[in-house]
Amino acid sequence: APLQIHAAMLALDTFQEQHSRLPNTGCLQDAEVLLKLTEEVNATLKNKAPVNAELVRCLSRTARGTLSPLAAAVGGLASQEALKAITGKFAPLQQWFYLDAIEVVKPLQSLSPEEFSPRGDRYDGLRACIGESMCLELHKLRVFMVGCGAIGCEMLKNFALLGVGLAKSSGEVCITDPDLIEKSNLNRQFLFRPHHIQKPKSTTAAEATHDINPDLYVDAHLNKVCPATESIYSDSFYSRLNLVVTALDNVEARRYVDSRCVSNQRPLLDSGTMGTKGHTEIIVPNLTESYNSHRDPPEEEIPFCTLKSFPSVIEHTIQWARDKFENAFAHKPSMYNSFWLTHSSAEVVLQRIQAGESLEGAFQVIKLLSRRPSQWEQCVAIARLKFEKYFKRKAIQLLHSFPLDTRLKDGSLFWQSPKRPPAPIDFDLKDNLHFTFIVSTARLFAGIYNIPYSEKDLSEETVSRILADVKIPEYRPSEKCIETDETVKKPDQIKMPQSSEEEREAITQLEQAIAANSVTPESLQMSPQQFEKDDDSNGHMDFVASASALRARMYSIEPADRLKTKRIAGKIIPAIATATAAVAGLVALELIKVVGGYEFESFKNCFFNLAIPVVVLTEPAPVKRTLIRDNIYFSIWDCWTIFGHEDFTLSDLMNAVREKYGIEPTMVVHGVKMLYVPVMPGHSKRLKLTMQKLIKPSVDRRYVDLTVSFAPEADGDEDLPGPPVRYYFTCDGETP
């Protein structure tokens, strides 16, 4: 194909030189002239392929056209080449590179010439490529795009140029993104400008898109797409969509959106970039596998002992700080709240522990309760003690356990690369890093314990006055064993056995708290902090950046600036405008194919690396069909449906499945609840119960998806899997 395209493009140049114009759209005479020129050019080429007459005719018909997604993809690649020339970075392109979308235009060859004729509007260039009928289909498209970052901005530009979702055609582009625009976004998210900083991405992007094409109807939301927003992005919401586009860097969010698309039989266009690399994936109901059909290999984890005791690079100290944040300000408060939701009162917990019961998480929760601060001054004191623990005592303990002259069994030094010996840090409030750590840590403790503080409380004068009264206990290193095995995983603190001394201490602490009347409803509540890297006012990045920098200083590791720390701690995937432009263009090409109802062979997934440069186009993975038995197959896209009514019993459901689909159900599960398992005691009695009583649906619930297993062909074989069975509570599927 590249050689055939090369000959045709050289012939097109010759045509333009001879006629001072490009071939006219739909002109058969021009097409034949171009074909003859192509044959002449091809005869002169050293490396040649047979002339592809169909390709040449497609080129002639579309020569005056403009397919903006293809222009975006080629533009991204060409821009990267320009950057290579300027910077000298990455390997430049050798000779020629052709990227074609012949599979988009080839199926349209049989349409009448009028389809491609100009109408005197902004879509004439597009119309010359894909025809009027396809343009109209794009205009009335209803798209849901999740994410308005770098790829999202580029996708919206493609939508505007393609006329996707025009108001006058009852089309719509619904977009959602909860994030605000940051200064760092401006180098690749080109719908945003400096005066947009701290404004919502979605609404700002919608306004900018409207400026490009005022006819577009863009509905901007500020929501995450997750189980918590399922009432907003419900099945009825998905039912009125034509397709979904994900422009996210969060894998779990993409997996969730994919599951919603599968259950609602909607196409999904997914893409992502990392630096100069990019990929696109097209997911079409009943034709391809889904995003969840494959799993990326797990990320390589930093060994527990490296994070805890032996960091050697800045990434280790940043991850350590991030873990400290997660444990102290998110995990422990969440565990604390869950514990008190399960256990009614401190008195009952005390009685059960005294009776010898083992309550999961009780000792950690009691420790948090007994040490709970109630004033800002106490939060500052805790922060100072944390500084002492993290940056002084830890070093003293390590050097006590492994003195600098420690040798391994083979005689080599213990403290040799990559291991770095730590140096204890003495606290100095005049050191800005020390001050930032104290204030940010105190703020976070105040946040989880719902303790108010003022701007004055954050001043160096106030903090200095509080610290003057904080007594730092003398520290003596212990003879404890420090883990050095890189294969050992982090222990689960909640499930670790407690010594009898720890049990007695916990009982005493809880008795004292109850006796002091300090156990109030308020004291049994904490406010977990979800790490938010983009809000500089919350102190989250202040904590991570200062804690990481102090640990790096302790281990003589080259520090990172705040931006790099933010990128690593926030798991920000590096993006470059060239790659995002190319990815968005390639996705928009697939969108045209979805709208046109193209055959499976037309769809293309893509992986590219503009640095090399390499572009690999492949067919999507075809959907796998699993045999249940007797020529009964199912795929991930299948969902069997049963319509019930108020008195519909579990037995009725099983009979209905057998009669409708010709196979006997043996087990019915709803979520994690087993509705019917024959071997379970008492389950046979459930057959007479109504589905309403077994499931207890909410008032507005129309249906539930059930996991059903089927009887094997031979006794002793395992039950057979099947597709989900969607049970509607009413015969018409409406809300009961």
UniProtKB/TrEMBL annotation:
It catalyses: ATP + ubiquitin + [E1 ubiquitin-activating enzyme]-L-cysteine = AMP + diphosphate + S-ubiquitinyl-[E1 ubiquitin-activating enzyme]-L-cysteine. GO terms for molecular function: ATP binding; ubiquitin activating enzyme activity. SUPFAM superfamilies: Activating enzymes of the ubiquitin-like proteins. Residues 603-725 form the Ubiquitin-activating enzyme E1 C-terminal domain. Its EC number is 6.2.1.45. Keywords: ATP-binding, Ligase, Nucleotide-binding, Ubl conjugation pathway. PANTHER family: UBIQUITIN-ACTIVATING ENZYME E1 (PTHR10953), UBIQUITIN-LIKE MODIFIER-ACTIVATING ENZYME 6 (PTHR10953:SF186). This is E1 ubiquitin-activating enzyme. The lineage of its organism: Eukaryota, Metazoa, Chordata, Craniata, Vertebrata.
